[in-house]
């Protein structure tokens, strides 16, 4: 099995493990000497030997704690790296598989964490421990070392066979988990359709079938875990028993082994087999985790949808410039040969019939959708995007609006300007009211203004808006338009609009229709 893990950390783990087992061996050595002198030699307790025993035992405990902390820290950094790589895969098509992506980011990645935090360190620590114990026992009691060598291979042979099967079953379980999540999310989104079309029984049957398959897959994994644990216990008890029997025969019948050698061998043998047993258990858990990594890798190994296709222009003549740009999805061209230059600190409106590519054009400017051809140049990558989709992350109203960059005074100020304070004051916790599961206690028009407020607080160099005055009444629309006029002093605003009032304050107007975009009549 190939372990995808930095060699540097494997070497560090091995060195720490070597020191740990050396400290344990010396602890066992001094303990055996003390007991041999005290019990067999009838000597008084040596405080010097006792001090050395305690020193090595304490060093062993401290080093084990350092090892656990280090492995957890490295695993955390590695999971953070995986998460960042996953986030880099986000593009305009991700929302079509949002449940699968979020599972990879939050569920599968977290279930993979034990593989790097526990399994890999356990492998390294166990292999070092086994080698050192065998080496020491060859000098202390050779027969015990030979018994360990003959019985030990049965453990890895068994758990490799079972563990690989576990990984396959885990991958199937992870896939079913994604499928269940996607099915449930789609049903929640389409609950009204289910109610009105009388599809309740059909939907119920699909949920029950998916749940039954998931439970069946889980039971298979538990069966492998039980079999693995049972066999590991059996082999461990058998191995320790054989060592104890051989030492007993040497003491009683042959009388050719010292108390020191017998006790030291009996101290190291259980440690040897317990290490193998722990490795067996962790191998099962590790393969379970690897099944989740396979789901993560499906996203990581998928061909990148696009690299950064936008360039930052240093001239400063234009805020956004599109030259010979074609946009669309797959093989379909929505707009062809776009040549537009939006000047700095202007309001620019785009109109046109639905489905002609207006929103797609905005996504190309924002960086969510690469053009089929042509060049996109910007004066800055500092862009605020107000989409036509209503979605809020789980946080508080203040956290959403400030986005970590604005204080409470600034947030209250923008809410006041957009005439939202009256609605906010009605909330029990005001601007610190939690927003959970996209449950926003505002009307459609108020939500639009909240989204506008969030972008305006950031004061980006470019603001891209999709239907910014949607859901707004005439009075509220006037308030928003006044704000946009003010923010034109530091930002270039590009907006897809349907309503005439925003056109009245626009510096330029483009109309998109029949795959062409042309200057309109303002």
TrEMBL record:
Keyword entries, A-Z: ATP-binding, Membrane, Nucleotide-binding, Transmembrane, Transmembrane helix
Sequence intervals crossing the membrane: 9-27, 47-67, 118-139, 145-164, 224-245
Chief place where the protein resides: membrane
Alphabetical list of InterPro entries matching this protein: AAA+_ATPase, ABC1_TM_dom, ABC1_TM_sf, ABC_transporter-like_ATP-bd, ABC_transporter-like_CS, P-loop_NTPase, Type_1_exporter
GO CC aspect terms: plasma membrane
Topology versus the membrane: Multi-pass membrane protein
Subcellular location: Cell membrane
GO molecular function: ABC-type transporter activity; ATP binding; ATP hydrolysis activity
Matching Pfam families: ABC_membrane (PF00664), ABC_tran (PF00005)
Residues in ABC transporter domain copies: 320-522
Source taxon at top rank: Bacteria
All copies of domain ABC transmembrane type-1, residue ranges: 11-288
Name used for this protein in its record: ATP-binding cassette, subfamily C, CydD
Species the sequence originates in: Lacicoccus qingdaonensis
């Amino acid at each position: 099995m190939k372990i995808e893990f930095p060699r540097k950390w494997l070497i560090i783990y091995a060195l720490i493990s070597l020191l740990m087992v050396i400290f344990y061996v010396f602890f066992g050595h001094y303990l055996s000497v003390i007991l041999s002198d005290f019990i067999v030699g009838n000597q008084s307790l040596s405080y010097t030997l006792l001090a050395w025993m305690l020193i090595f035992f304490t060093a062993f405990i401290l080093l084990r704690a350092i090892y656990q902390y280090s492995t957890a820290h490295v695993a955390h950094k590695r999971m953070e790296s995986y998460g960042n790589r996953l986030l880099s895969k986000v593009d305009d098509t991700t929302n079509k598989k949002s449940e699968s992506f979020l599972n990879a980011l939050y569920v599968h990645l977290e279930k993979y964490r034990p593989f790097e935090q526990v399994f890999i360190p356990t492998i390294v620590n166990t292999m070092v421990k086994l080698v050192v114990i065998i080496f020491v026992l060859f000098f202390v009691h050779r027969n015990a070392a030979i018994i360990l060598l003959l019985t030990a291979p049965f453990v890895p042979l068994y758990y490799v066979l079972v563990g690989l099967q576990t990984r396959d079953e885990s991958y199937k379980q992870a896939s079913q988990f994604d499928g269940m999540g996607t099915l449930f999310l789609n049903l929640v989104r389409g609950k009204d359709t289910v109610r009105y079309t009388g599809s309740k029984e059909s939907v119920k049957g699909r949920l029950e079938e998916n749940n039954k398959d998931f439970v069946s897959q889980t039971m298979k994994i538990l069966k492998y875990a039980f079999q693995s644990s049972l066999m590991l216990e059996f082999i461990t008890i058998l191995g320790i028993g054989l060592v104890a029997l051989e030492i007993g025969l040497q003491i009683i019948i042959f009388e050719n082994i010292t108390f020191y050698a017998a006790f030291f061998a009996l101290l190291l043998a259980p440690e040897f087999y317990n290490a193998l047993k722990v490795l067996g258990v962790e191998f099962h858990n590790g393969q379970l985790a690897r099944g989740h990594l396979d789901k993560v890798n499906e996203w990581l190994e998928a061909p990148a949808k696009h690299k950064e296709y936008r360039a930052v222009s240093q001239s400063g003549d234009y805020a956004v410039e599109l030259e010979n740009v074609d946009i669309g999805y797959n093989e379909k061209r929505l707009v062809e040969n776009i040549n537009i230059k939006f000047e700095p600190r202007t309001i620019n409106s785009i109109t046109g019939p639905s489905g002609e590519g207006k929103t797609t054009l905005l996504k190309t400017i924002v960086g969510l959708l690469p053009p089929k051809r042509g060049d996109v140049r910007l004066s800055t990558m500092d862009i605020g995007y107000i989409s036509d989709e209503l979605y809020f992350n789980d946080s508080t109203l203040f956290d959403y609006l400030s986005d970590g960059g604005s204080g409470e005074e600034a947030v209250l100020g923008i809410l006041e300007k957009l005439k939202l304070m009256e609605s906010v004051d009605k909330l029990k916790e005001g601007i610190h009211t939690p927003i959970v599961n996209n449950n926003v206690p505002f009307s459609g028009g108020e939500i639009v203004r909240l989204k506008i407020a969030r972008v305006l607080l950031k004061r980006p160099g470019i603001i891209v808006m999709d239907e910014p005055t949607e859901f707004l009444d005439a009075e509220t629309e006037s308030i928003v338009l006044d704000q946009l006029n003010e923010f034109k002093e530091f930002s270039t605003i590009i907006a897809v609009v349907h309503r005439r009032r925003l056109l009245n304050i626009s510096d330029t107007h483009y109309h998109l229709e029949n795959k062409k975009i042309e200057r309109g009549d303002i």
